[in-house]
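Why do we care about 3D structure at all? Because function follows from shape, and shape follows, mostly, from sequence. That is the central idea of this module. The next example makes it concrete: a single protein chain, its amino acid sequence, and then its structure expressed as tokens.
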Amino acid sequence: MELELRHLRTIRAIADAGSLTKAATALGLAQPALSAQLRRIERSLGGTLFERGRTGVRATALGELVLDRARVVLPAVRELQQEAVRFARAGAPYGPRTPLRLGGTHGPLLGGLVDRLASADPGVTVVTHTSWSEREIAASAAEGRLDYALIGACGESTPPGSGSLAWTEVARDPVFVMLSTDHPLAARPGIELAELAAEAWTDVPGDGCFADCFAAACVRAGFTPACVYETDTASCVHLVQVGRAVGLCRATFPDTPGMVTRPLVGTPLVWRHLLGWHPEAPAATRAPQVVAQVRAAHSDAVARSSSYARWLTARGAVLHNAVEGADW
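And the structure:
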């Protein structure tokens, strides 16, 4: 893993807070997620950055070295970004030929959005960036490196960067479970989470709270997952197809040979699709059109999932966004 600016921000936040618990709260992360991130950072730097004690954490000699550099690098980068944004706004006003920079976590909506924007305006140039990190995508939009951030959030959790970005909920989906077509429960229209207590699970990585939400849902169902394979989407699908694991997915996951997706009874997990942008950025003038195209892309994704279509039909819903967007 290469050291990135977001890692320096994490190290500084831990040092400023004096404890992992307080730092996790300030960063909007669960403490286990922050602890795991810190371990990855320490492995990349070759040593321990903080000593843990009863009263909190204290920087080691290596930690002090990294913090000294971070206190120089982070303000310099922030100043550079601010100057670049001011220069761009003054000398290159946003227009129809200006590239539209989109960032998103891995999922079906980013590709659908690119397709719809290109179809609506063949002259627009779209540049994309993807990451497993919702916080990285949001930070890039807040710092002017992206025009729009398309991410997801579990349940009612607050989106990252909510203090500097305008966020709109473009859709809300139940979380489904992926099963091999040979799984004993594959023919069922709906599955109780507790019925999967003995299964191995697979899911994609991320730095949001979804893993904590899933763990809490399992506890409410009376079990703790014995095994969770965290890997890329293609590997998740393969593990499900061969019967090695069951997986969690958005309800919009398209029909795929060798596996089925089924709703969880009672909808214990919900996924919200969020679009964020800086309200003072030049590209913010296009927000109504971009929001409309994301919602249309979501409707397209719903229509491609037969199991989601059945789930909505059973509830008397039409094939469009499950929930109209809400603004923060």
